[in-house]
Write a structure and sequence with these properties.
With 158 residues, the protein is of the alpha+beta class. It has a single domain, classed as Cytochrome P450 (Cytochrome p450, Orthogonal Bundle). Helices cover 27% and strands 20% of the residues. The strands form four sheets. A two-stranded antiparallel sheet has the order 1-4. Strands 2-3 form a two-stranded antiparallel ribbon. A hairpin with a 3-residue loop joins β6 and β7. The longest helix is centred in the last third of the chain and has 16 residues. It is globular. Pfam families: p450. This is Cytochrome P450.
Length: 158
């Protein structure tokens, strides 16, 4: 019931919720840019990136790239089914960065988010007037934010 506390054993069974969370982070990544220092010159086709430079990658551009995500503006948690993930380049999804210097907190973040979401959605119903992902205009700050704020209504479930 809605009053029962979420337990650790519950979290491992929330497979669909985890896919929804991952798809949400694909469409609306928290961190807009990943920046890395180039330690030595790198040749990329007709361009040399000199050692000592910084390189920035706009995460949302990768997360909405049709090369990796067919119909990128369609919200589809099944993109994160294991068989779909196996077909994709490992760096096509980077909400926590990637490689040896990625964020150390994804496991904790998913555990905390699952626990919070499972607790809140049992007691409250959420709705919005947005009809599609393209309706939500974003601005880059320390994190990506909607230009017009968070258009969400919250009501107690009956």
């Amino acid at each position: 019931g809605p009053d029962r506390a979420v337990e650790v054993d519950d979290l491992g069974r929330f497979h669909y919720m985890e896919r929804v969370m991952k798809e949400t982070m694909r469409v609306f990544p928290v961190g807009p840019v990943l920046v890395r220092a180039v330690t030595k010159d790198i040749q990329l086709e007709n361009c040399v990136i000199p050692g000592g430079s910084s390189v920035a990658m706009v995460v949302i551009k990768t997360h909405r790239n049709e090369k990796y995500w067919p119909q990128p503006f369609r919200f589809d948690p099944d993109r994160f089914l294991p068989e779909e993930v196996a077909k994709r380049h490992p760096y096509a999804w980077l909400p926590f960065s990637g490689g040896p210097r990625n964020c150390v907190g994804p496991r904790y973040a998913f555990t905390a988010m699952k626990s919070l979401i499972a607790t809140v959605v049992r007691k409250y119903k959420f709705s919005t007037d947005y009809n599609c992902i393209e309706d939500i205009k974003l601005k880059a700050d320390l994190v990506l934010k909607p230009v017009n704020g968070y258009n969400v209504s919250v009501k107690l479930r009956e």
